[in-house]
Amino acid sequence: MEIWDLYDADRILTGETAVRGNPLPDGRYHIVVEALFLNSRGETLLQRRAKDKDIMPDIWSVTGGSATAGEDSAAACIRENEEEMGFTPDMSRGRLFMTERQDRPGRGFFRDIWLFRQDMPIEKMTWQPGEVQDGMWILPEKIKENEKLWRDLTQLYFWEKLYPYLCLESFRIRIPKGIYRHYKGNRYEVQGLALHSETLEPMVIYKALYGMGETWTRPAKMWNEEVTLPEGNKTLRFRREDI
Asked: Is the pTM for the entire model greater than 0.85?
């Protein structure tokens, strides 16, 4: 039997508890956590739920679950990931990425989404039987290119809202601030990354280190692309110089 602490609409503990599966009183909420990871290559960690799960079986998802009585959000995040994926999130490299309150009759909750920058090889993970059957590291933008992955993950109602920000954080790992040389020879300073206000596409903000010193923006997905030179050789569009 799983017992939850209950909170009011301002996320203040009420001293009440509820048993999982029972409707919550009006104006009462429990805490749900999700754990997202980005490794040093900018890849995010996905898990494939077990085939015999009662809810959303055999789909690609992320680690998550409810905080039990006596746990705060961080403790629940650690426990859920240890149980499901078999390793401990490094809280020194994690932060609360997004939080929201969901008002649902009898099922209200606060959802906390944590983001960790942490490397962990798949072969060192231990998946919980009956919960997880597989896992993978994948670049966030590749998820949308895969019809099944995108369809699976959008069953998590928060995914589409979260996705542009996850892509942005991934590109920040792969395109750090610094000096880069374009394959045609000019040098630029990457000043940061941002989301396009209309499309939510991650963009690189960079300044020319020649001429009038103009500031430019370019889709992040183009930055690390390979281009073909006239003689047929391939090279990176931009190469970092100040490593």
From this structure: yes
